[in-house]
Each structure stands twice: as C-alpha cells, then as structure tokens.
Amino acid sequence: MFQALVDGILLGGVYGVIATGLSLVFGVLGVVNFAHAEFLMLGMYVAWFAWRWLGLDPMLGSVLSFIVVFAVGYLVQRTLIERVLKAPPAAQVFLTVGLLIVIENAALMAFGSEFRSVSVPYQVEGYRLGDIFIGAPYLYAFIAAIILAAVLWLYLERSWTGRAIRAVAQDPMASTLVGVDTRRTYALAFGLGVALTAFGGAVILPYITVSPTVGGQFVVLMFTVVVLGGLGSVAGALAGGIVVGVVQSMSTLVFPIQLQNLCLFVIFIAVLALRPQGLIKGA
Amino acid sequence: MGALLEADAICVTFGGLRAVDGVSFTVNAGEIIGLIGPNGAGKTTIFNALVGLQPLTSGFVRLGGERVSGLKPHRVAQKGMTKTFQNAALFPDMSVVENVTTAALLRHDLHGARTKAEAVLEKLGLNGIAQADVADLTFPQKALVEMARALATEPRVLLLDEVMAALTHSEMDEVMEVIRGLRAEGLSFLVVEHHMRAIMALCDKLLAVNFGRLLAHGTPAEVAANPQVIEAYLGHGAVGKEAAHA
Amino acid sequence: MRSFLSPGRVALLLFFLAAALLPFFVDPRGHLLRVAAMVLLFAAMAQSWNVVGGLANQISLGHAGFFGLGAYTSTLLFLKLGISPWFGLFAGALVAGSAAALLSIPTFRLKGHYFALATLAFAEVMRVIANSWASLTGGPVGLSIPFMGSQPAYFAFRAVSSYYWIILALLVLVCLVFHLLATGAIGYRLRAVRENENAAEVAGIDTFRVKLTASVISAALTAVCGTVFAQFTFYFDPDSIFALASISVRMAMIAIVGGLGTLAGPILGALFLIPLEEVANALLSSKAAGLSQFAFGVILIAAILIQPRGLMAYWPKKRHPAGSRGA
Ligand SMILES: Nc1ncnc2c1ncn2[C@@H]1O[C@H](COP(=O)(O)OP(=O)(O)OP(=O)(O)O)[C@@H](O)[C@H]1O
Ligand SMILES: [Mg+2]
Question: Among candidates C10, C48, C18, C31, which has minimal Cα distance to C171?
C-alpha cells in the first residue's frame, strides 16, 4: 500500500514533467498538440543513441534530448504550427494529428520497429527504507524531473524570455505593443514544451523501452494529467502528474492490469465533463 | 388561479457579481409587461434565468403554477415560455423559413412545422423574405425573424429582448400592432426595450431594475415618475439616449 | 421544392448502378475488385462519421473505437459461441451504440479540441484494452476468421464479388440513413444545434437528445462497417482496427475532403483518396515500412497548409438539403 504510494509519486513526478510541456504549449499557443507524445519518443531515441554511441547515461543524455528536440520543436512551430494559430480548431487538430503520423512513421523508417533499451549499472539496484523498496532508476528519474521542473519555474519567473512567454500567454496583443516578438516567443514556448517532454522521455529510458509507437502509450496518460491540472496550467500539470502516477500504481492493487488504462480514461472523461471550465483556465 | 408567470425572489450571481438580486414579479395572461433599466442592469440576465439558459442561484420561476426553474430551456419552451435574443441569434446557415420551421418542430411534425412556419411569417409580414438567407437580412428584419422563430414554438409567454432596437417609428408601430394582436389572442409578453415611446404606448405595467434589483413597479406613468428610476437613468446618462429615441 | 430527380440524385443513382455492375467487367477474383470494395467500404465509414462530423459538426477522432467494437463483437460471438456474423453485425451495432450513448453523457458539452481529445482517448483506451485483455480478445495477435468456403448463412463467401455487393448495399443503406437524417426533422435540429446551441434550446430543441441520437446512429453504422470489414479481410488486430491514423483520421479526412456534411462528399472523398493511397502503397511500401503512412501524414499536413483556413474551408457555404448537393 505504502509501497504503491511511493512508486506512484516517483512515477507521477516524471509524468508531471512530461505533461508540463503539453500544458505549456496549450497555455501559450492555445493549440492542443496531438503530436506531443511523439516528441517524447524522439527524446527517448536521442538519449538511446547518446547512450549507444557516446556512452552517455540517459540521465545526462536527457540534456542532449532536451536540446535536440527543442531545436526540432522550434522549427516545427516556425514552419507548420504558426500557420494554423488563427485557424479553426479542426484545422489545428488535423495538422497536429498529421504531424503525429509523420513523426511516428519517420521514426519507423529511420530506426526500424524493434524495441530498444539501455543497460545501466543501477538498473536493478535500489534503496530500502524499512519495508519500502525504491528502485534506483525510478528515483533518479524522479530527481531529474524535479530538478528540471525547478529550473523551468525559475526560468519562467525570472528570465526576460520566461516573462515574455507568460505575457504572451496572457495577452498577445499587449505583449506586441511592449516590444515582445510574439512569433519568436511562440516558437520558444513550443520548443520548450516539446523539449520538456523529450527530457521526461529520456530519463525514463532505464525502465521503459523505446520503439516508434511508444508515444501511443503516453497519449491518454499525458492528456489526463494535463486535463486534471487544468489545460495550460504548468503547476497544475505537475500536481496532476503525481495524482495520475499514484492512481495508476494504486489501481494495480485493485484492478487487473487491463483495466488500469480504463481507470485513467474514466478519470479523464470525468474531469472533462465535470470541470470543463478547469480546462480553459490559464489559457 | 394564480398568475401565469411568477418570478419568486430570483437571484443570479456571476462570481462575486449579483447580476439579479431577489427579483419578484408576476405576469398575468394577456398582459404586456415592460422591463426597463439602464445598460447592464440585469434585464437580459433575468430573461435568461426565466427561460432556463442561466441557472438560478436561488429563487423560483413558475409558469401556470408549475415550477420551471431548474428545467432546461427546451423544456421551458415546451411548457410555453421562450425568448428572443438581444443580438439576433438566428441559425446562419439556414433560410428564414428554415429557421422558423426548426422552432415549429417543437409541436409539429416536419410537414406541419413548415405550414406553421409559413403562417407565422405571414402574420409578421415576412413572407416576402421567407426564402432569403439570414446573412442577407437587415438588423430589423433579423429581429423580426427572431420573433417569428419564438412564436413558432407557440408560447404562452414571450420574452422580447430589444426587438425594436433598430426600427424606424413606422416599423415600430407595425411591430406594436402585431404584439397587440397576439395579446388579443391571449399571449402574454415581457418586453425589454430602451425606446421609452414604445414602452409607454405598449405596456400595461412596467418593472424597473437597476444593479439587479427591482426599483419600482406599477403603471407606466407611475414608474416613469418614480424618483429612484429617474435617478438610475440620470446616474447612467441614459436619459439622453431615451430622449433621442423618443 | 426541388424535383425528385435533381441532377445530383441522378448522378448518385448512376454511380450506384455503375458500381453494382462493376464485378461483371473486371476480374471477379482480382485485386481491382478488392480495391473497389475498399473504396465503397471507406465511403460507407466516412458517411457514418459524417452524421456526427458533418451534420452535428463534432470532429470525432475516435470512430475507430466503434469500428473495432463492431469487428470484435461479431467475430468473438462467432469464434466463441458459433453465432453467425449476421447476428453479430446487429450485436456489434448495439454494443457500439451503447458505448456512444455512454460517451455522450460526459462529452456532449465539449466542442472543438476537447471533443476531439475525448473521442481520441476513447479509441485509444479501446485499443489498449484489446491489446491487454488477451483472454477475451486474443491480445496483440489479433483475431482470424477461419476460411469456411461458401456459407452465406455465416457471412462467408468464395467470391470477392459477393462481399463487394454486400459492401455496396451497406453503402446505399448508410447513404439512405444519412439522407433521411439530413432532410428530416432531426436534420433541422442538428443544423440548429451545430450553429447555435443556446438559440436551439430556447427554440425548443433538446440539444442533448439530438446529439445523442446522431452519435448513437453514427456509432452503430460504423460498427456495422467494422463487422463487414472483419468478414471481408478475415483478420484484424487491436493496433490496426482501433488505429488513429488509418481508421479514425481517414474516416474524417475522406468526408472532409469530399465535402463535409454532404451526401456525396464521402463517396467523392473515398473515390479520390483510397485509390491514391493504393497507388502510393504499391509504389512505396516495398521501399520502407511506414513510408506510405508517412506520405498519408504529409498529404494531410499539406492539405491543411494549402488551405490556410484549414480543411474546414471546404465547408458547404450555403444551406441545402444535403441530399441534393452535387454528386
Ligand atoms: N455570462 C456572464 N458572466 C459574467 N457577468 C455577466 C454575464 N452576463 C452578464 N453579466 C453581467 O451582469 C450584468 C447584467 O447584464 P445584462 O446583460 O443582464 O444587462 P442588461 O440589463 O441586459 O443590459 P443591456 O441594456 O446593455 O442589454 C452586467 O454587469 C454584465 O456585465
Ligand atoms: Mg440586455
């Protein structure tokens, strides 16, 4: 029981960071990025290759994932998303779904369909606290996630660009008037959003294998977290991540594994239905 | 038998704002009651609360002695009360007659609804534009089509939210004639209007609201002479607006 | 009133007639007839989607969920209990219709992104459950329908043309349902709801019921397509039947490209897109796995960028009973 709680929190912290990226994108651009989970997959591949070719531990490789995917995201925003910012929702939906299909199949062509995993020395290690066993990969991923979340918070609060991002999220028109380059800021925000998610993908590599379709596992999860926290709310996404992590690991105690995802889905739909206003909060 | 429509201490709050604050009144069968008040007084919100578009924070609405507060708007329409929208909310992808037919479906099958729609358009003198696209209508025409659509639901009480806003005097007289004719058939009206001339000529009684509260009620002459009402209008500089229209 | 034989309807009837005669002119066992059957099946799927996507303007990305429910219900009933897929077809429609009704309760207020998100999540969850509940569904391996020769009572035929005609009949049925909905009382109500929900309520329309009706009918028709697909292809697995790209998105895209909310749209869209994909597949699939899907995604993105207001610019501009718009 207590064990499940701890497992859930460790898992949930990472979910939080993964979903924070999605929430940031929505909060600033007002676009629901259906392709978001694909950037998680890209982050995992970058970390995997960094491990394979450079011998980098995924915890360090995650920084590389962050940088590479940030660049990809920046370009995607400038070349594609930017053009549909003012289009009707359906156009945005289909553009990002198209992106999802393109990225997933590009990965399939480039990397093949096989599952790839890393082996690191701490993979099966762990720490004991009384009755509770804490797996080292889970703990490290959690710590990395928390560090990144803290850095993000500082960045949004303190740096000029961070403030510009928040300003644009609140009022793009006014931000333009005070000299913020909104197009650049949008691209930064999108890049940052997907990079955060990619980072989250990299740090879980020691316990989750990567394949071109890995994004599919995270789509519902990611949106559940974000919807729980209120689409567009970064702090909400972190909290939502922990909640989802705990629910998921607790539900293993009660439900057979098949029904776990159903459980998440029920939460997701319930939140959508009961707190629709929570979705738009902070947008 | 009590009143046809009865609002009993209705309240609506938006966050901290009390847009409607304990308003009570009654409308009897065949009455035309005016609802006046400066901009933002809460008139439209009262209408929305009556028809079920806006949930009440507290209070009750009864229609023909039966409680309708808490029902969805289509149920309220079925029981016999509907409204027009201040900024005409017609279905833009439909023709005029289709707009009206859609509402007539409440009490008729498709064939009957078409017949009903044509009859209503005829009554309002709109048969000339029955096939027109609503996008091509002028603002006064839109307001009349709104009214036709509401009438097609065959209400007992019809709430009109500024249908005469953009009309010329002669057009206004025509609409008032239609309203009086319908009243003669037993229909009751609650009318929001900024044109004092129309209000004074049309209404049996007036309700004056400001800041969501009922300031005064009585005959048009009584309410117009009420110092609080004058104050409310003067305070908002709305008297000039009335004068300009009158 | 329009005359019964408007040019659009004549064209549509001619199309159905030509389609019915096609098997007499091509190799009845050949690949071409299979492709033609797929065109008709996807037209029927897109038309089913069109009931919700076009008439109610709710962009569903989860119709693969209903499609798969249809396929799984009839196939499992047959494999586990020996029940004829003809019955399974109705059972699947019932299951999918019920699922749609349940899903409507929490989602009926949602619009745009949120509706798309909720429906997408629904199909994803179906996929995950089908993958993990192996004792019932066979898991990731999928289900195969054994070859039984010709047993019409069990929806099994030797000739491709038999399936082809069944699929054509299905398309005619779905188009008929769509036409009745679009031009009937519910068509008026659906358009009203799509254009202004508050005004529709005040005009006496039960917006929830109208949307519920549309989504249940849409889901049930989609499930029937799923059963027919399963019988036609003999094999499916969770990832292919509940697929976002190749089922849900494709259904929507066919309807949108052909003309959202119109009777002829899904047929035009399928006639255009499915052969195009078939050619792309033939040219590309030998090159690399994923290439044709990749091309599909690129086409989708390009279509939206070429039409910067999005695919929705294909929205029919003027009112018209959906039945009489150009076929
Ligand atoms: N949906 C809403 N959310 C929050 N506040 C609202 C909402 N609708 C109305 N209000 C506020 O409630 C008050 C009453 O508005 P209402 O539209 O009822 O006034 P009105 O008397 O109809 O004015 P007008 O003559 O301009 O039509 C106003 O202060 C308005 O800003
Ligand atoms: Mg008003």
Answer: C48
Average pLDDT value over all residues in chain A: 83
Task: Report mean pLDDT in 10-residue bins for chain A, 283 residues.
Answer: 83 87 86 90 93 88 92 93 82 87 91 86 79 83 86 81 79 76 87 92 88 84 81 78 84 72 78 59 36
- Total structural domains within chain C: 1
Residue of C nearest to B131 (CA): C319
Residue A252 CA to chain centroid, in angstroms? Answer: 23
CA–centroid distance, residue B102 to ligand 2 (Å): 25
User: Are the Cβ atoms of C112 and A272 closer than 8 angstroms?
Assistant: no
Q: How large is the greatest C-alpha to C-alpha distance in chain B, in angstroms?
A: 54
Reported as a single tens digit per residue, the pLDDT across C216-244 is: 999 999 999 999 999 999 899 998 999 88
Q: Ligand 1 in contact with B42 (CB < 6 A)?
A: yes
Residue minimizing CA distance to atom 12 of ligand 1: B19
Predicted TM-score (pTM) of the model is 0.84
Distance B56 CA to ligand 1 centre (A): 14
CA distance C16 to chain A (A): 31
C-alpha gyration radius of chain A: 18
The pLDDT value recorded for residue C321 is 42
Residue closest by Cα to atom 14 of ligand 1: B42
Please report, for residues A58, B88, C200, C202, the alpha-carbon distance to residue B139 in angstroms, rounded to integers and kept in the order given.
65, 8, 20, 20
Asked if the Cβ–Cβ distance from B94 to C192 is below 8 Å, we say yes
CA-to-CA distance for B120 and A216, rounded, in angstroms? 55
For residue C213, what are the domain limits?
28-244
Q: Domain extents for chain B?
A: 5-80+155-243, 89-152
Q: B5-80+155-243: what fold?
A: Rossmann fold (3.40.50)
Query: Contact C121/A91, CB-based, under 8 Å?
Result: no
ipTM of the complex, rounded to two decimals: 0.88
